[in-house]
Amino acid sequence: MAAGPVVLVDAGGANIASLKFALARLGRESLFTADEATIRSASHVIIPGVGAAADAMARLQANGLDRLIPELRQPILGICLGMQLLFEGSDEDHARCLGILPGQAHRFTPAPGRPVPQMGWNALVPRAQHPLLEGVADEAYVYFVHSYALPVSRHTVASANYGEEFAALVASENFHGAQFHPERSGPVGERILKNFLDL
Fold this sequence. Notes:
Layout (H helix, E strand, L loop, with lengths): L5 E4 L6 H10 L4 E4 L2 H5 L3 E4 L5 H10 L2 H4 L7 E4 L1 H5 L1 E4 L4 E2 L4 E7 L10 E6 L1 E2 L14 E6 L1 E2 L6 E6 L3 E8 L2 E4 L7 H12 L2
Parallel strand pairs: 1-2, 1-3, 3-4, 4-14, 5-7
Antiparallel strand pairs: 5-6, 7-11, 8-10, 9-12, 12-13, 13-14
């Protein structure tokens, strides 16, 4: 495991304290920053997210991070909105995102007994073998808070269902995304975070 700090990219996310605490439980220091040099020197980079896609992209663009992030070669993990930012865009405010992965985030359709946003626990259904899922049981439950989601694609490592199948965990080369919140998903989320830190 690399000894350097984990960097949490300042994209306006609101789940910073719980994420830093989860990383500390795994023995890793973390820094919350928008500084390009600090991000480049990190062992692992996490893009947290709670908020709106357009606002988050505006913050990244203001700091030049929309150009930096696609160039990074260390392991990257986008969480919730942070995962959506890795894709081409979101229907939310017609946001154009980083375009590292192909796809567009769409809003869930509300239905009786299925309000939007989805807030609660849902099962992860593995779709591919990947180190992020090492030691994670099939259909383990993780915690989601989101209104928008990406369709299942060739980059989907695990999916979940909320009236429709959607991508819950994605990976492509050094870029990874979790639509759920591992820092709020108990032992399962902790294991997935540990697996990420072990990459």
